[in-house]
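hi! just following up on the protien thing from before. the input was this:
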Amino acid sequence: MKISGVDIRPGNILEYEGGLWKVAKIQHTQPGKGGAYMQVEMKNLVDGRKTNVRFRSADTLEKVRLDTKTFQYLFADGDMLTFMDKENYEQITLPADLLGDAAEFLQDGMDVQLELYDEKPISVALPDQIEAVIVEADAVVKGQTASSSYKPAILENGVRVMVPPFISAGTKIIVDVYAREYVGKAN
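and the predicted 3d structure came back as:
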C-alpha cells in the first residue's frame, strides 16, 4: 500500500531502500521557506541500523503489512529464546536481541505477539504491562513521605525501577515494560 511522506506515523513498517524499516519517531516541520516535510527516525528490522530521513508530501513509500500471530514464551537457552505457536504447537527459536531490553520482562508461559513478514519473524511485542514482585526495596526515609519522592526497587527479574515510598519487598506491582516504570499495585 502506497502512502504519502506526510502520512507516516510511529509504528508503521516501511519498505525503504530495499529494506524493512520501523518508524520510531516523526516530526512534522514547516519551514518559513520551502515546503513542509516529515522528519522520520527509523530502525531497520533486519540489522538494527537507525536512520533519519526527510520525506516531503510528494514522496510516496510502500507501507508493509505484517502478519501478527500469538506465540507463548517457553524458555531461554543462552541468548536464544524458544516460543510456541498457540495454534499448531510448533516451536521456533529466536535471538534475544530481537526483543531488545524488553527480553528481561519475559515470564514463563507469557503470550507475545510475533510480527511475521513472508512467514519470517521480524519483531516480538510483549504485553505493555506485566505484574512483577519486588525482591528488594530501600527503606523509607522519615520526612520524605509528604513529597512525591520515589525510591529504587529491584524486581524478581533483576530490573531496577523507581517505586513510591509505601511499596516494600514482597509487594506485587504492575510495571510498564517499555518505559520501565511503576504503574500501580497489583491485586
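The domain at 2-63 is CATH 2.30.30.30 (SH3 type barrels.).
The radius of gyration is 21 Å.
cheers
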